[in-house]
Amino acid sequence: MIHSMTTFARFSDQGDWGMATWEIRAVNHRYFDCTIKMPEILRSLETNIRLQLQQQLHRGRIECMLRFQPGEQSGLNLMLNTSLVKKLADAIGEVKTFLPTAPEVDPMKILSWPQVLQTVEADAESVHKIILQLFEKTLVDLIAAREREGAALAEIIKNKLQEVLIIAGKVKNKIPQVLADQRAKIVARLEEIKSGLDQARLEQEMVYLAQRIDVAEELDRLETHCKEIKRILTTGGNVGKRLDFLMQELNREANTLSSKSVDVEVTQAAVVLKVLIEQMREQVQNIV
After folding, report:
1. CB-based burial, 82-104: b 16+ in 10 Å, e otherwise
2. How many angstroms separate the CA atoms of 52 and 31, rounded?
3. Per DSSP, which regions of the chain are E strands?
4. Which domain holds residue 199?
5. Are 220 and 134 within one domain?
6. Which residue among 14, 32, 67, 222 has the highest number of C-beta atoms inside a 10 angstrom radius?
7. pTM of the model as a whole
8. pLDDT tens-digit series, residues 46-103
């Protein structure tokens, strides 16, 4: 199964224990990069949550946020750390001696300082369990969304691959005609300048020309890469980096095809190939 990196999931619930809302937002990123925002009273759950995110999502920039309002039956109560508040007040007073015109400090900002509000846990284990269960449901929803988006991306890429193969086949069929046209042009030029037509030399030049514009290997590799991409899309897994590499290889073959071309139609075909490859690569950037 192919998974997209760009997804979002949200899950809310409430009860006597309080009210909680989990949001997980994921966007494409080369590696796993996770930011977790949650109330300090539940910060002890962060390690578990981060581990689950990394094990399940593997790649992407992840923003995970919990909004929590404890209820009366939650077993979670807040206590003011008076010792720390006193130290902060002393520090603020000392700063005021250097900056007498500084505005007064908002007490609410002091409350947001780490460790100023501490959790007194009467029986918080059950609340922690509920919060983790809600997180896991949100994560399941996110993974399901990733799978749906991934399936859509895979279908888009497969359709583009089919277009690439059709164009490559047309170019392959066109090459004998290109060689014949080039041979006719050389003969016409020789006749125009009334130069003696040395058949052996003409054949030698045609062999050289055929070698110079031969794109059979490029077209074969192009088809091989397309088949490998199709296989990977069918197999699934964490294949984003592998697919990105193959897109670079496809682009390399298309560039070589363009540089070797002596025919307008072949050149145009190479341009279309590069456009299709770039469109596929944009989709691949979102695959885990």
Report:
1. eebbeebeeeeeeeeeeeeeeee
2. 16
3. 7-15, 18-27, 32-37, 60-70, 76-80, 117-121
4. 152-284
5. no
6. 222
7. 0.75
8. 999 999 999 999 999 999 999 998 876 555 566 678 888 888 888 888 888 888 887 8
